[in-house]
From TrEMBL:
<dbReference type="InterPro" id="IPR002293">
    <property type="entry name" value="AA/rel_permease1"/>
</dbReference>
<dbReference type="GO" id="GO:0005886">
    <property type="term" value="C:plasma membrane"/>
</dbReference>
<feature type="transmembrane region" description="Helical">
    <location>
        <begin position="54"/>
        <end position="73"/>
    </location>
</feature>
<dbReference type="InterPro" id="IPR050367">
    <property type="entry name" value="APC_superfamily"/>
</dbReference>
<feature type="transmembrane region" description="Helical">
    <location>
        <begin position="116"/>
        <end position="135"/>
    </location>
</feature>
<protein>
    <submittedName>
        <fullName>Amino acid permease</fullName>
    </submittedName>
</protein>
<dbReference type="GO" id="GO:0022857">
    <property type="term" value="F:transmembrane transporter activity"/>
</dbReference>
<keyword id="KW-1003">Cell membrane</keyword>
<feature type="transmembrane region" description="Helical">
    <location>
        <begin position="29"/>
        <end position="48"/>
    </location>
</feature>
<keyword id="KW-1133">Transmembrane helix</keyword>
<keyword id="KW-0472">Membrane</keyword>
<feature type="transmembrane region" description="Helical">
    <location>
        <begin position="141"/>
        <end position="163"/>
    </location>
</feature>
<dbReference type="Pfam" id="PF13520">
    <property type="entry name" value="AA_permease_2"/>
</dbReference>
<keyword id="KW-0812">Transmembrane</keyword>
């Protein structure tokens, strides 16, 4: 608003529309949710706490996951484009907050991904049988296997979600 004149926001340019092809269907997203939430990390706590955990899962579904999903759908419709949380924060709060949200997301994953890699390698060793259980304590094996797994996942991400989504679908 300048000198009492209200100016309209610029229309979304055709070039600002998302360029990525949507390859994840509803079933892919359901399986992604299953893999992200119901994984081997939670089995011991579910076993230790018994039936009450079923109610806690239902409560978390109703009070967290559905509202979060609704918020993501609303933000994706309101601010179409590539970038997710970075784009939404940038559009609403400005460049610095967009950078900050993207940076926080990146640094969070920088710590999370290696942890998951090491966990996966450590648990997977036991599927090879008791003769290979000693590999779980080998730091060099854990490092080598984690880096190999990371390289495979990087290649799958470069190839695209059309192929990479099957990792989650198989895990789900």
């Amino acid at each position: 608003m300048a000198n009492g004149v209200i100016t309209a926001l610029p229309a979304v340019d055709a070039q600002e529309q998302p360029h990525l092809k949507r390859v994840l269907g509803r079933w892919d997203l359901v399986l992604l949710f299953v893999v992200a939430v119901f994984n081997l990390n939670v089995v011991p706590s579910i076993a230790a706490n018994g039936g009450i955990t079923v109610w806690l899962w239902i409560i978390s579904l109703l009070l967290f996951f559905w509202p979060q999903g609704i918020a993501v759908i609303e933000l994706a419709h309101r601010y179409p484009g590539e970038g997710g949380v970075y784009l939404w924060a940038k559009e609403v709060f400005g460049d610095f907050h967009g950078f900050l949200s993207g940076w926080c997301y990146w640094t969070n994953n920088m710590m999370y991904v290696p942890t998951i890699m090491l966990y996966f390698v450590g648990v997977s060793v036991f599927s090879l049988g008791p003769a290979h259980a000693g590999l779980a304590d080998s730091k060099s094996f854990a490092l080598t296997a984690s880096l190999a797994l990371l390289a495979i996942l990087v290649v799958l991400n470069i190839v695209g979600l059309g192929v990479g989504k099957w990792i989650n679908n198989i895990g789900g």
